[in-house]
Amino acid sequence: MSLTSAHIIYHIRRKAALTNERGAFDAHCQEIGEYLYPEHANFTYTPTAGAKRMSKIFDSTPIHANQLLASGLFSLLTSSANPWFHILPADAQLADKRDIIIFLETISKIMYHEINKPSAGFSTAVHEGYLEYGAFGNLTLFIDEYLATNSLRFTSLPLYECYYVENTVGIVDTLYRTYVRTAEFLMNKFGTENLSEKTQKLIAENKLDAKINCFHIILPRDTANHLASKSTDLPFASLYIEADSEHLIKEGGFHELPFMAARFRKSSHEVYGRGPGSTALPDVKMLMRIAQVTIRAAQKSADPPIILPDSGFLRPLRTTPGGLNFYQRGRLNTKKDIDILPTGNPGLGIEYSELLHKKIREVFFVDQLQLHTGPQMTATEVMQRTEEKLRLMGPLLGRIQTELLGPVISRVYGLLLRAGKLPPTPAILEGVPLKIVYTSPIARAQEQVEANGLMRALGILEPLLKYSPETTDIFDTDEMGRGVFEMFSVNQKYLRSAKDVAALRNQRAEAEKAKQNAENLRASGQGADSMARAGATAQEADLLGGDFGVLQ
Fold first, then answer.
1. 195 close to 249: Cβ distance less than 8 angstroms
2. Which residues have a Cβ under 8 Å from the Cβ of 421 and sit 6 or more positions away?
3. What element of type H or E holds 247?
4. Which residue, 56, 38, 27, 64, is CA-closest to 289?
5. Which of 63, 79, 106, 234 is deepest in the core (most CB within 10 A)?
């Protein structure tokens, strides 16, 4: 049984209901976009292609702050220059087996290589997503296979096209996406025979640039009991629909959830998130008003309006830069026939703007992402300030790892495994759960908080150890050593397994024992030789006729 027209109409009406429910939020995002991300300010209307979008911008600080946040998140979380994750078994006993660690490190390297292929477009897509993440508080990333190059393909989906539905545990597992494509695009992607009669007619008339409204719907199949796929029973259903013609273009599915919907922060009763753009919006609007007034004040100071004598003022009074105003002689207290009309000083506006700049940068975590250090700071002060900044970033990192990075790695692993790009899984790992360890700079910095604490503890105990060396008995130096390697995200292949360490220590103990035995035997041999020489000397004394006293 395939999807019926009634089911298609149901999805179209459901999408319309989701649009109506999001009306107030769309208006809010439209306002944010006009000040912070003008290129994506398409929530309540679609501007003409190529139209100017900066009409409300008088100060670029908010846009720059959002760009700094996006760049900081990219560099500190998902940099293409350094690996930002590796995979380990969740079972601690398996994590101590060297061959398993090396196998999983190989898997991690292959995944990282595939993610960062130029054809995959990860860097571009995730950076665009971070821009929306900071401005609107939501990021939508779609991962599919790019058959033309046999590689992954990452796409950042703009929020104004996407509508979320949460499941019972608060995870977004259903996506309604609406977009406009040309008839030529649909023909090349799906084939003419799969399009509606209306679109086929446009193609036949060579109207390839005609715009077609489309939906792409992704939802779990177990909750969509009205669906019965024609060709697949994959866990997640995928529907492409022509909205105006109410025509199903294609029905398919995915093994894993192919999109990631990350929210910056979220109220319990809302589906969509809110980001720094929402928090900073009042200050941003005030900054634009102040900037506009300050610009006018600066113009008047640079090119002030002047007053000229006449029989009287001719209204209205012109206070614009370079304006001319006429006054009646003797009625204006001025010593010059031609004088400057007093105007405001832009200095106050500039000072207030600087205060707003600082507040906006703080909202966008610019101070936390740029870990500045002063020239007179000690190493301890640097560590303490770094810890303080990273604690402020903790909630942000926790949510983005849960809703974005973890699902990305799971989806990539599944795609590469089915494509045969990963080596066969060892029998010992069959059915064993794996865990993701993040090794990005900011994740390492958070882990190093524990390392810094260990260093401070040892520094405090150092004087005590001089007077009481037996205190070191409380330290498990093996665990401390492995822990430091883990805190700094050093590749675990550089460490011996506990079994190998035990064997090495046994071998060393045996060698030490053998050496000691040899020393004992040598000492025993020397003792026997001394006793033999002493006996010979006594015998010689007897043969000489008495004790040694006679000889003396």
1. yes
2. 110, 114
3. strand 247-254
4. 56
5. 63
